[in-house]
Amino acid sequence: xxxIAFDPIYAHPLPEGHRFPMLKYELIPGxxxxxxxxxxxxxxxPDELDxxxxxxxxxxxxxxxxxxxxxxxxxxxxxxxxxSAKLVExxxxxxxxxxxxxxxxxxxxxxxxxxxxxxxxxxxxxEGFCMLNDQAIAANYLLHHKLASSVLxxxxxxxxxxxxxxxxxxxxxxxTFSMHxxxxxxxxxxxxxLDIPLPDGTDGESFLTILKDTLPKLIAQxxxxxxxxxxxxxxxxxxxxxxxxxxxxxxxxxxxxxxEQCKANNIPVQVSxxxxxxxxxxDIVNAHCNTYRVADELYF
Length: 300
Description:
Layout: E1 3-5, H1 19-22, H2 24-35, E2 43-44, H3 51-54, H4 60-67, H5 73-79, H6 85-108, E3 110-113, H7 134-144, E4 151-155, H8 162-167, E5 174-181, E6 194-198, H9 204-222, E7 226-230, H10 248-264, E8 269-272, H11 281-299
Parallel strand pairs: 1-2, 1-3, 3-8, 4-5, 4-7, 5-6, 7-8
């Protein structure tokens, strides 16, 4: 069964200027339900994540400042919006949804979080609308509970997964792979185990050629027993922040290749949706929904 973490809090209202991107968190499951691809049985609502699990990834002082809403104005500006209790609750539910998704991925091969992909959050900072790094938290959960011994993070969002890279810079059990726009946010890049920076205007053919040359080799070399996939659609040519030139069909081909590699190698994969900032919300929602459509076709 295709299992998808979703909670209404994912679309929690934000200050003016931030509400538009949040619409997708309600529209994606709504579209999938409308198509009949899923029913409400496919959706699950995560609980709040416990502090002990958070502290395996994030520094205690940073987490307590986040929890207690005492981050400085400068730190909040780095995150990109003012801190609130509801926003922190949103983050910890997203992280729990990714952990729960891992358990479903072991059972069904693949599982999704409608939100997540908060890859700019490092051990002791939040940045770029990310406060807690959901996939890093989940990877550490799997390792701590001995549910996995070798993890591969495949980050194909247009922005480098700088927080994820920093968190795992000295962790040999987690290999971080980020293919992203070279001239995009963040200005200061961290060092993933493998970074592939792409020039502005990279098209779908070039993107897919690089991915198809890289991912099978990584899987063969690293032999992961679990994969985290960050499936951002801010690589679209229509994206206001992306600087790359992929079409929705290119994104769909990207998803197909990633899932085919996971499935062929019998590696469970958890998918967090990441970014998407096209001017027309329909472009964002349709591109994200294609990720679910391809998974449903290949796995179910």
